[in-house]
Amino acid sequence: MPQLYKMTDEYNQSGIGCQWGPGAEHTAVGGGELGGPGWLYAFTHPLIAEFLSSFLPYHEGRRLWEADGDIGLTGSGIEVGCTRLVTVRRIPLPVTTPAQHVEFATLVVKAVGAQGIWQDLVDDTLAEAALYMTGGCPEWAKAAAAEVVGWAVQGTTDVGLVALAEQARRCSCASTPSQHRK
Predict the structure, then answer these.
(1) What pTM was estimated for this model as a whole?
(2) How far apart are CA 136 and CA 133, in angstroms?
């Protein structure tokens, strides 16, 4: 069974109000699409959880848990849908910078190959993220970057998100990540 990761707020609750903690177990019926109410959601890697949970309403008080579960549905490598999920223990969130979040989004867009009108939206949002980053709003930069990744991977299979996340984390980019159109 692959290792899973569950993100909660500072009260150990998820967005749907489930209470999590050491040994907490929840079940779901499954069914429907990933993103629907039939699944309990978990991330597949701690870096993916860190890079993509910035859009959650409780991003500032986030807690990361190692989890075990029964995976019923996989998507594009971001999250999996589980019919059973158990949080095992809390682990530290990976330490990342806003620039690394924007770099991750840039790398994902390169890997997916956004084009046309979609490319304009990506360009605008990544430009916004860079402005937030340099303008003193690092949490907004992280959220904008996570939004770009969510858009980019819709309808794709896994584009190697873990490798891209690890590459972005190694980036020592102070404020200007690599350009995604190159």
Answers:
(1) 0.81
(2) 6
